[in-house]
């Protein structure tokens, strides 16, 4: 079936809305991570593992409810594998730092909402998008994340990289 015939199956408003929600979810992942690391000084390994485990769990539920196969199921498998591989980091992080509830409340939605639901939405709409539209959408995620960082984390908007390396 040609790409144009597949695009006709999903109305433009639905395509646009689902695409926008998925891209906001992907950008939200970055914002939640930066917020947890900056505001609460959360260990990056802890954040990553909590995000992976919660995302894997959410993807497992989504796949089970919708009975979908690849690519959503493949993504769930990758999240689970990454969770298992990074589990020692979480254990070390728990043993050698104080894990507070506030950053955990940022890490869990990062996995469940921004990652798992973001991927579910993206894989639903992707077959209905032209390659160029999908590419431009994905390339807009850092811009959306920068705006989110400005609005929710208090980061400055700048065209310059202010990190100085010596």
Description:
By secondary structure, the protein is mostly helical. It has one domain (10-129). The protein is 78% helix and 0% strand. It has helices at 3-7, 12-39, 44-66, 72-96, 101-125, 131-153. The model is unreliable at 1-7 (pLDDT under 50).
Question: What's the quick description here?
Answer:
The chain has helices spanning 3-7, 12-39, 44-66, 72-96, 101-125, 131-153. It contains six helices and no strands. It holds the Pfam family EamA.
Please give the structural blueprint.
Layout: H1 3-7, H2 12-39, H3 44-66, H4 72-96, H5 101-125, H6 131-153
Helix pairs in contact: 2-5, 2-6, 3-4, 3-5
Helices, by number, come to 6
Low-confidence stretches: 1-7
Structural class: mainly alpha
Order of helices and strands: HHHHHH
State Rg. Answer: 18 Å
**Count of DSSP E strands?**
0
Our measurement of the CA-to-CA distance between the termini, rounded to an integer number of angstroms, reads: 55 Å
Major sheet, described briefly? none
In percent, how much strand structure appears in the residues?
A: under 5%
Helix content: over 70%
CA-based shape: flat
Number of domains: 1
Query: Average pLDDT value?
Result: 80
């Amino acid at each position: 079936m040609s790409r144009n015939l597949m695009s006709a199956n999903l109305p433009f408003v639905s395509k646009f809305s689902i695409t926008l929600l998925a891209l906001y979810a992907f950008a939200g992942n970055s914002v939640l991570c930066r917020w947890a690391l900056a505001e609460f000084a959360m260990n990056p390994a802890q954040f990553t593992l909590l995000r992976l485990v919660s995302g894997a769990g959410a993807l497992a539920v989504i796949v089970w409810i919708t009975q979908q196969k690849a690519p959503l199921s493949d993504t769930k498998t990758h999240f689970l594998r990454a969770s298992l591989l990074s589990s020692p980091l979480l254990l070390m992080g728990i043993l050698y730092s104080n894990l507070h509830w506030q950053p955990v409340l940022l890490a869990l939605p990062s996995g469940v909402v921004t990652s798992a639901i973001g991927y579910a939405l993206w894989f639903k709409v992707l077959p209905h998008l032209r390659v160029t539209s999908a590419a431009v959408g994905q390339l807009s995620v850092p811009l959306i994340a920068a705006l989110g960082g400005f609005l929710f984390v208090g980061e400055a908007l700048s065209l310059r990289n202010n990190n100085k390396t010596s």
